[in-house]
Amino acid sequence: MCGIVGYVGHRQALEVVLGGLHRLEYRGYDSAGVALLGGGGAQRVARKAGRIANLEAVLDADGRATFGGTVGIGHTRWATHGPPADRNSHPHVDESGQVAVVHNGIIENFAELRGELEAAGVELTSDTDSETVAHLVARAYASGETAGDLDASVREVCRRLRGAFTLVITHSDVPDRIVAARRSSPLVVGVGDGEHFVASDVAAFIEHTRRAVELGQDQVVVITRDGYEVTDFTGEPASARPFTVDWDLSAAEKGGHDYFMLKEIEEQPDALANTLRGHFAAGRITLDEQRITEQDLRDIDKVFVVACGSAYHSGLVAKYAIEHWCRLPVEVELASEFRYRDPVLDRDTLVVAVSQSGETADTLEAVRHARGQKARVLAVCNTNGAQIPRESDAVLYTHAGPEIGVASTKAFLAQIAANYLVGLALAQERGTKYPDEVAREFAELANTPSAVQKALTTTDQVRDLARRIADAKAVLFLGRHVGYPVALEGALKLKELAYMHAEGFAAGELKHGPIALIEDGLPVVIVMPSPKGRAMLHSKLVSNISEIQARGARTIVIAEEGDDVVRPYADELIEVPAVTTLLQPLVSTVPLQVLAAEIARSRGYDIDKPRNLAKSVTVE
Ligand code: M6R
Hints:
Layout: E1 3-8, H1 13-24, E2 31-37, E3 43-49, H2 52-62, E4 71-77, E5 92-93, E6 99-107, H3 110-119, H4 131-142, H5 150-160, E7 163-171, E8 178-183, E9 188-191, E10 196-199, E11 211-214, E12 219-223, E13 228-232, E14 241-244, H6 260-266, H7 268-276, E15 280-281, E16 284-285, E17 289-290, H8 294-299, E18 302-307, H9 309-326, E19 330-334, H10 335-338, E20 349-355, H11 361-372, E21 376-381, H12 387-390, E22 394-397, H13 410-430, H14 435-446, H15 448-455, H16 459-469, E23 474-479, H17 483-498, E24 501-506, E25 523-527, H18 535-550, E26 554-560, E27 572-576, H19 584-602
Parallel strand pairs: 18-19, 18-20, 20-21, 21-22, 23-24, 23-25, 25-26, 26-27
Antiparallel strand pairs: 1-4, 1-10, 2-3, 2-4, 5-6, 6-7, 7-8, 8-12, 9-10, 9-11, 11-14, 12-13, 15-16, 17-22
Helix pairs in contact: 4-5, 7-13, 7-15, 9-13, 9-17, 13-14, 15-19, 16-19, 17-19
The structure holds 5-amino-5-deoxy-1-O-phosphono-D-mannitol.
5-amino-5-deoxy-1-O-phosphono-D-mannitol binds near residues 308 and 311.
C-alpha cells in the first residue's frame, strides 16, 4: 500500500515523478504529493488529499515551472495513520523544510518516537507515523556522530524503527542524491543512463528503463545520477539482486480500454498460457524455485493454503484438485486468521502461500509463522522476487503480467492454474498419479486458454444484463463443489467494484437460512456444474434453482454450453465452454468479472480504483 518513487537524473524530475505516480496509483489514492530539489538546493513540496489529479491542479495553480529540478520524490497514499487530508499527505518535512520523506508501511513504535520528539519541543503537524522520520533524520543530520552525513543519518534512524517500511528521503543540503531504505515493504532501483530511480514497483520507471535492482531486507540504497550504492543498516556494503523486467510499457498501459480491469479480463487467455508455459517438460511438472527435497515432498502429510481475498478463493478451488490428485488433507485458511488459532504445523506440512503481489502483510506473516513452526512453504506469486517468494522454500510464479486494476482478474485465473500445477507436482512426486495421468491433466490445463477465450465471447450479453440489473439492491451467488468458490469470487467482485450487497453461498446451504433472503425480483447468479461431469450435483442445483424461482428470484445461470436441462430454469442463461469439472472455475469466473465491472460502470464508479481499497495490502 502507498506508492513511492524517486528520481535523480537529467530530466525534469517533476514530470518523471508524476508519470511514476500515475503508474503506482493502484497502490493507494487517498492523497498524492511531490518534493522537488531545484538547482540551488531549495526544496519545494506540493501535496493534496484525493487523486493525483488534485495534486496536478495544485501544481498548475502554483506554476509547474516553479517545481523545477532534476531530483524529486513522490507518493500516492493509502491512509493508515490519520484520515486522507492535506496535512497527512506525503511528503512530510522537518521543521526547517530541508528534509523530505515519503513512506510506505507502518512504523509500529511511532507513538514512542513521537513522544520523544514532542518532549524535545518538536512540533508535529500531521497525524501520521511517517512524519516522525523526517524529524528524526533532520536531528541525526544536525548533530552527533552522523552530523552532515545524510546516508548515515538515515541508517541510524532505520535502526530505531520497528515495523515495515520503505522510505525515500531527500535533504536540500545534498541536492544530488536520494537515500532510500526498506524493511519488509518493496523497493526497487531503476538503472538508466545518467539517471536512477527508486520505486515501490518497476511500473513507475518502466517507460525509462527495464534494468532494475531489487533491494533485500534491511538495506539502504543511495542513488545519484551516476550510480547507486547498497548497504545494510549499519553501513556495511550489501548485495542486491539485479534483474531485467520481462514486460514493457504497453503491458502497464490501458491499450485502448477505458479501464485496466477490462484489458486485464481480456488478457486472461495469455495469462494462463504464460503461467503454464515451460512447466511440463520431459514428462514432468517443474516449479520455478525448488528448495524442498524430493524426499521432503514425499513426506508431506498435510497441506494448508493460506491467502487473502481472491487468492484465498483460488485456494478453495485448489483444495478440490489437491485432495483428489494427491490424497492429502488440504485446509484453506484466510491468512489473516491463520496464525491466531495455533494451527497444527510441523516439518511434514506444506503451506502454499498464494499472493499476486507477494507483499500482502497477512500472507507474509502467515508464511513466517509457518516457517517458524518448521513447515515447508511454497509461494505462488505474480511478482518476481517479492517478499513472500523470497521467504519461501519453493516458488511457482504466475505469469499474468502486471495487474493494475485493484480487482483481481487475470491474476486470479493464473493462481488457479498455478495451484493446479502445484497439485500435479505433488501427485507426481508422491506417486498418487501415474506419469501418463499427470500428462493428461496438464494437457487439459493447456487447453484452457482457448476455452477462456471462448468464455469471453459472452461479454456483450453479460454487459447488457449488467445494465439491466444495475439498480438491484443486492445480488446472491450460488454454486456447489468448485462452483462454490466461483460464487464467492463473483460476490467479492461485485462488493468491491459496485459497492452492492453481494453474498456467495454453497447452494446446498440455502435451505439452512439464506433462502429467507429471496424476494421478488432479487437477482441470483447460479454457477452450474456440468450435466455430464457432475450429473448428481447438477440435478440438485436444478432443484435449488426451482426452489428460489418459486419464491420470485430472477435467475441468472452460468452453465456449460448445450445444457438444455437447466435452460427452462434460467431467466438469463450464459453459456460457457465445456471443460473438465476441476477446470470449470477458469471459464465460469469470466462472466462474473464482466458482470461486476459493468454494473459498477453503470453505477458511475471507477472500476480500477474502488473506494477504500488498494492493490497491495501491506498492513495487517
Ligand atoms: O496480492 P494478493 O494476491 O496477496 O492480494 C490478496 C487480496 O488482497 C486480493 O486478492 C483482493 O481481494 C482483490 N482486490 C480482490 O479482487
